[in-house]
Amino acid sequence: MRFAPSLALAAVLLAGTVTLPLPSPAHAEATMPREATIIVMGEADATAAPDLAIVTLGVSKTAKSAREALDANNTAMAAVLKALKDDGIAEKDLQTSGFSIQPQYAYPENPDGTPKTPELTGYTVNNALTIRVRELAKLGDILDKSVTLGVNQGGDIQFTNTDPASAIDTARKTAVKNAIAKARTIAESASVNLGRIVEITENTSRPGPGPVMRMSMAKEAADSVPVAAGENTYTVNVNVTFAIKQ
């Protein structure tokens, strides 16, 4: 039995269907011409006077026994806390940031210079307190009173801003304007037309709280510790990619 030529051809096509692969999206994207762009960086700073000081103060007491050292430390720290609260420092702005009890040893030597067995001589109790001072005008008096009442460690002072958003926004706007001006200059110099913004990325550098000063704690404190708060600087960097108009 013979098939008509057209039926035979159809049977062959059905039996051996040929599928041509379509280009993958990645391949298609790779073969597309790359968009011409200009990439620039804009930078700007904004300053703000600090409105908050973070102070770390500590009491260290040494005695023959751990109990005696702890009692002496507790007495001094209780007096410091009371004075701070009397000066208007709120409970939420007072935080114990460190506490330790450490044995103290003497390290005697034999006449020939070889070491003897260490001898326990006493115990040292350290108690550190972190204070947030929101009225900077009181900071000098607070430091002075604290030393008078027994603070003999610490003295790290960090100035910061409770809400730096306004300063950062100012720096951000200036940084973007700076980037646009750079891109226009580059486009004009290259005799091309600046197009749409393709991408913007930002990096913000915040200073606070950064260490500003460290005091040497001593019983002979001045009537009022001189303190200079200065300014905090916030830096914003933006990277902006512009298309070049064809």
From TrEMBL:
Matches recorded under InterPro entries = 26kDa_periplasmic_antigen (IPR052022), SIMPL/DUF541 (IPR007497)
Task: Please identify the protein, giving its name as recorded.
Answer: SIMPL domain-containing protein
**Which positions, given as ranges, span the membrane?**
none
Native source species? Rhizobium setariae
Gene Ontology BP term (one): DNA damage response
Top-level taxon of the source organism: Bacteria
Q: Which PANTHER family match?
A: PERIPLASMIC IMMUNOGENIC PROTEIN, SLR1258 PROTEIN
One Pfam family name from the record? SIMPL
Gene3D superfamilies reported in the protein's UniProt record = Protein of unknown function (DUF541), domain 1 (3.30.110.170), Protein of unknown function (DUF541), domain 2 (3.30.70.2970)
User: Does tRNA-binding count among this protein's keywords?
Assistant: no
Q: Where is the signal peptide?
A: 1-28
Q: Which UniProt keywords apply?
A: Signal
Q: Does the keyword section mention Plastid?
A: no
